[in-house]
Amino acid sequence: MSILFLTVCAFMLFSFEGMMIPMVEGSGYIPAPPSGPHLGYVNIEYQYEIKTVNRNASWMFDWGDGETTPWLSLETTSTSIVQTHLWTTEGNYTVRIKFKNTMYPTGIWSDPLLVSISFPTIADYPSEPVLLSGTVEGVNETIYMYTIKATDPHGYRVQYRCDFGEDPITNWTSLVFSGSQSVFAHRWVTPGNFSVRFQALNEYKLHSSWSSPILLSIQNASLNTTWCKDLLVIGDGTDFMTYQADDHIGSFENTTMGRSSDVHWDGQGTYLIDDDMDGKWEYEYTPAAGLLQPIPSPIVIKNQQASFQLPWLWIFIIMGVVIGVIVIILVLVKTGYLYLYEEVVEK
Q1: Interatomic CA distance for residues 243 and 194, integer angstroms
Q2: Concatenated DSSP letters for 279-326?
Q3: pLDDT computed for residue 346 by the predictor
Q4: Gap between the Cα atoms of 283 and 47, Å rounded
Q5: Which among 96, 91, 112, 95 has a CA at the least distance from the CA of 41?
Q6: Bridge partners, residue 251, by sequence
Q7: Of the CATH numbers 3.20.20.10, 2.60.40.10, 2.60.40.1180, 3.90.190.20, which one belongs to the domain with range 16-118?
Q8: Can you give the three-state secondary structure of 322-347, one letter per residue?
Q9: What is the pTM of this model?
Q10: What does the pLDDT average to over 249-274?
Q11: Domain 123-302 has what CATH class?
């Protein structure tokens, strides 16, 4: 029974993923290579990690460029050891870790992690983030949502940060796929005019330039105004929607066409938008979530359709009456029932 118990314990010990010390036949214990980026750029710091629960061992990183860390031990509350490193010249490097304990006092090397380091070019940087929707006129002490996105030329994941012109710059968001949207929420404490800008960073630490600042006007909420103006990017145009947050009325302005139309509140937090004034709802916008998306099957605006048909109906009726009167007069003149004469004036 005791032999079986020891066997099970040994199996669990060497199978536990956090140990990162798999058994290799004929060679004892070999630590797994560290986890981290397999490519990067010169003079940018990257993070590498080893996971372990072994508190009776020491670890050392070898960066492959002649530099190593001192021997490191696991902290009491940690399950991993994290180190950062930057390479000053381009090339291919082998990153390894060395493990030692009382059983292996001279240490054992892990298999290498191959890392390729190069100089970045302009074509390697992510694009400037684009603001897809967000409030440009509002009031203080109210939370507004801002939706942005950027793309990476290599399809690498990206993350974002924002400068709202009032608080310190935000922390970087978590990584998302290239071209995916991220939403920021912000509340201005004091009224005033502010500029908002955004920046993107890809997973290999190349960052875009800051986006062009967008000017905002934040009014005093004590003036009891709930009118807002939101910027919306639909297609290639930058348009605006002005709406009353309490009564849920408003209009959409297509800046390219120079025309505007009413928006429709659906009663569930979303406004319906006719962006090209063709009598159909093509987009829906939810300000509280910063979500603007197309409607898969545009909805015909029934009231608007009726308002366009009614004038034409009356025009046809009036034209028919006029033509009928003219025909009747001509018939009466031709049949002699109606005479046309000129009055002779004596001189």
Answers
A1: 21
A2: SEEEEEEEGGGTEEEEEEEEEE-HHHHHHHHHHHHHHHHHHHHHHHHH
A3: 58
A4: 43
A5: 91
A6: 242, 262
A7: 2.60.40.10
A8: HHHHHHHHHHHHHHCCCCCCCCCCCC
A9: 0.72
A10: 91
A11: mainly beta
